Amino acid sequence: MTQYRLTDEQKQLRDAARRFARGYLAPKAAEIEKAGTDFPKEALKEMAKHGFLGLDVPTEYGGQGLDTLSCGVILEELASGWFSSTIFAMNLATGPILAVGSPAQKKKYLGGICSGDMVPAFALTEPAGGSDAANITTRVAREGDQYVLRGQKIFISNAHRADVIVVFARSEPGAPRGKGISIVLVEKGTPGLKIGQRFETIAHTANPIWEVVFDDCRVPKENLIGAEGNGFSYIQKDFAKIRATYGSRCVGVAQGALDYALQYATERTQFGQTVASFQGIRFKVAELVSKIEAARQLSYRAAALADEGGPEAPVAASMAKLFASAVAVETTGEAMQLMGGHGMLKMHPIERMYREAKLFQIGDGTSEMLKILVSRHANRKAEDKQPARVD
Ligand SMILES: Cc1cc2nc3c(=O)[nH]c(=O)nc-3n(C[C@H](O)[C@H](O)[C@H](O)COP(=O)(O)OP(=O)(O)OC[C@H]3O[C@@H](n4cnc5c(N)ncnc54)[C@H](O)[C@@H]3O)c2cc1C
Which domains does the chain have, with CATH numbers? Predict the structure, then answer.
């Protein structure tokens, strides 16, 4: 059984991230959403200055060089102020460059991303391939010294301002499922790269999502990341890290919402006593605190397993995201309930957290897809006459 215990250094990072989240990110979230603008570069640079960008990127490329557990600990705290999906989308895009990029590609892009000077985007989803990502139809073909892309992506975060887009495309039509997909880097301004319509969303408006069209979009052959046809195996490997830390972000949002609402409930009086002192409320709070703690431990353990690279790390991470996202949705709803009508007011962050939390059950593996993975693991264990747990 994988054991973990937070070191003093991790606790210090956690406390620093909490101060930054509550002091800087939370007020920024309200201000930026009200203005209807993007997550600003200035905020990215502020995050970089405090060491909160490029958490898992090696220091030689300008990052913090942290393990997955430390990343989870920090991301949880940052999310307690603002989930800031731009940071998440940037992490997704950095992943393939970090995992299978050449030293030259790493040098070219990672430094700028870690300093907040460059915004990357991650383009996997298509009209026909969301959950069924192996079914993507955007084509990439080698022609002389170039790769040529043709096709369409949707829901791509920050595509309109991305300096570089990490694109998944089919290089081998007819290859077995999950094979024959390659990853190519497309830089801003490349002829044939067209940013189409913006999709309006109920939340995460500082992280707008876009259609991206590749119309005979040609990039130098050096822009291929990793081996041709092997792109999908890369994301499958990286899912353990991504989903474990996604679980931690969900925990952060749940904790941030509960902390805020509980503070309110200790000050609000009805029937001559504080709302927080009613037994009906105390029982509800006890349940939420317990669920948040369970989600936290599940996410930390999944992160520790991801660092070990064990075979059960991906399923542990799927469990963490599945459970923690449900806890975030439940907690943000209950936090609003705890504040009554005040919870729905724009002057409090709870209504924003409530809207933002729904994405957690959709983005980066819907809850249904995660249940398929977890139940597959459980069935395999049952066939081996083993308990359905993660060892
Ligand atoms: C705010 C936001 C930001 C995003 N950013 C990005 C980005 O930067 N890059 C990117 O590539 N994508 C991005 N996405 C897309 C996101 O990853 C997809 O929306 C997600 O993967 C789900 O795909 P889909 O929308 O096509 O839903 P579908 O796959 O069509 O699913 C619809 C429903 O059917 C269910 N379902 C599907 N298959 C099964 C099954 N086998 N069994 C049971 N149920 C099933 C799903 O769980 C879901 O409930 C973003 C989306 C949003 C909303």
Answer: 8-119 (1.10.540.10), 121-229 (2.40.110.10), 232-383 (1.20.140.10)
Min mean pLDDT across 163-167, 231-235, 273-277, 344-348 is at 231-235
Please report how the helices 313-338 and 279-308 are oriented relative to each other, as an axis angle in degrees rounded to 10: 160
Atom of ligand 1 nearest to the CA of 366: 47
The percent of residues in the chain predicted with pLDDT above 90, rounded, is: 92
Question: Three-class SS of residue 33?
Answer: helix
pLDDT tens per residue across span 309-361: 989 999 999 999 999 999 999 999 999 999 999 999 999 999 999 999 999 99
Ligand 1 centroid – CA 153 distance (Å): 13
123 Cα: distance to centroid of ligand 1 (angstroms)? 13
Distance CA 185, CA 101 (A): 10
pTM: 0.96
Three-state secondary-structure class, residue 122? strand
What is residue 203's three-state secondary structure? coil
Q: Give the HSE-up count for residue 94: Cα atoms under 13 Å, Cβ half-sphere.
A: 28
362 lines ligand 1 (CB under 6 A): yes
135 lines ligand 1 (CB under 6 A): no
Q: Please report the atom of ligand 1 found closest to the CA of residue 121.
A: 8
